[in-house]
Amino acid sequence: MASRGGGGVGGNLSYLSQQEAIRVDEELMGPRLGFSVDQLMELAGLSCACALAEVYDKATHPAVLVFCGPGNNGGDGLVAARHLTHFGRDVRVCYPKRTDRELYKGLVKQLESLGVPFVEVDEAIASLPACSVVLDAMFGFSFKGEPRPPFKAVIEELSGCGKPIVSVDIPSGWHVDQEDGGAEDLLRPEMLISLTAPKECARRFKGKHHFLGGRFVPPEIRERFGLSLPEFPGTSQCVRIS
C-alpha cells in the first residue's frame, strides 16, 4: 500500500516505494490490464514533453539538451525528445550507453529521421552554456547504488551548470526509497515530473515545479495500491502537484 504525506491533493498525496513501483508496472503490463512497455513509454514521454513545454516557454527556452540513460527512463527521454522536436524546440540528445533492444533502436531512428543530433558526453557538456533547459532522463526508479561513468561525470557537471534541470520521475543519482537526502544528491532539479505516482524520494524535492505525468493509471491500480493522486485536467497529459 502506497504511503501518504504532504504535497498536492490536500496534503494526502501518495508515494510509491521502489518495490511498489515495480509491482505497479508488472500489474499494468500483466495479462489482466494488457499494457505494453512501448505504450507506457510513449505516454510517459509525451507527458514529460508536455510538462516541460508548459513550464518553459519556447520563446525563452528554445534549446533542450536531453541526457538519456540505458533503461526505461532513458526511453522516456527519447520519446520526450521526439515530441519536443515536434513542439518546435531545438533538441540535442546525449545517449552514451545504448541498448540493442529493438524498441530503443526504433526510438533512435525516429529522432534521426527528424534530424535530431546525437552528441557524445564531452560535446554535450561543452554545449551546456548554449542550451536553455536540460532534461534528465538517465536513471529511473529501478536504479540502485552509485552512478557509474560516464553518468557520474554528467551529474557532477549538471549540478553546477546553472541551467534549469527537469528530471524524469527520479532526479538521477537519488536513492529512490530515501526520504532524507545525502551526499549522493548532487543533482538539484528545478522541476520534477513524477510518473504514475511520486516515488518516496520525491518527498525531499525542493524545486519550483513538481508535476505528475503518465495518464494511464486505471481505477483498479489506484484501488489496489491505495493511490491518492491529483486528477488530470481536461485533455492534459500532465498535472501540477506543487
From TrEMBL:
Protein's name according to its UniProt entry: NAD(P)H-hydrate epimerase
Pfam families: YjeF_N (PF03853)
Taxonomic superkingdom: Eukaryota
Cofactor binding annotation: Binds 1 potassium ion per subunit.
Lineage, uppermost ranks: Eukaryota, Viridiplantae, Chlorophyta, Chloropicophyceae, Chloropicales
GO MF, one example: NAD(P)HX epimerase activity
GO cellular component, one term: mitochondrion
Domain YjeF N-terminal: 21-229
Family: Belongs to the NnrE/AIBP family.
Classification via PROSITE patterns: YJEF_N
Organism for this UniProt entry: Chloropicon primus
